[in-house]
Write a structure and sequence with these properties.
By secondary structure, this protein is mostly beta strands. The protein is built from one helix and 18 strands. It is globular.
């Protein structure tokens, strides 16, 4: 229950539409991605463009110590922006010989800087998202980008619209949401799943 909250509208730059996801700095500044492929840094009043490259960033996660912003882009895969912004460096476009079709959600472990992310479907891209839902697509994956080895591992596959991901502080489990199945899975150490 919310007792007292004040909301204010934060103006995005002209022609910036479709804000999708948020990642916050401890200071209160935040990043958001918009429809034309930009990732914007907002200080609460005036946003500054960080990533003018075309694409569609859907997931953002900030590693606080390095101030790196990890980006899941629907078209380009997993990328990262340094502390000074600029164009994202693409870290991975596929895993196990399969390209990402709809890279969506991302979370970063603050201790190890390992990155956990989802690929919603192995069949459908963002322009076919409604079709994926209609067909109850279950080819989604949860993946891990290991910061030390710079390699991607598929942790779990055959998810029904893997849209959200979160990792605990000790990396003992990863949670993933499945939008097509309307459930969340807890992927424990050893990658055994249980529905929540």
């Amino acid at each position: 229950m919310v007792l007292s909250v004040s909301f204010r509208k934060i103006q995005l730059p002209p022609n910036a539409t479709g804000p999708d996801t948020l990642a916050f700095e401890p200071s209160g500044r935040f990043y958001t991605s918009v429809h034309d492929g930009q990732s914007l840094l907002c200080n609460g009043i005036d946003p500054a463009t960080l990533n003018p490259a075309c694409g569609r960033p859907l997931g953002l996660a900030l590693h606080y110590k390095t101030n790196k912003l990890y980006v899941c882009d629907a078209y380009y895969g997993l990328g990262v922006l340094g502390a000074k912004g600029g164009q994202a460096t693409i870290l991975s476009t596929g895993a196990d010989g399969q390209p990402y079709r709809l890279c969506d959600a991302v979370d970063v472990n603050q201790g190890t800087e390992n990155v956990y992310f989802t690929d919603v479907s192995a069949v459908y891209d963002i322009s076919q998202a409604a079709e994926a839902i209609r067909n109850n697509d279950s080819t989604g994956r949860v993946l891990k980008y290991d910061m030390k080895t710079k390699q991607v591992t598929v942790l779990f596959k055959n998810l029904s619209g893997a849209a959200g991901v979160a990792v605990d502080e000790e990396e003992k489990f990863v949670m993933a949401s499945e939008i097509n199945a309307n459930k969340t899975k807890d992927l424990a150490q050893g990658f055994k799943s249980k529905e929540i």
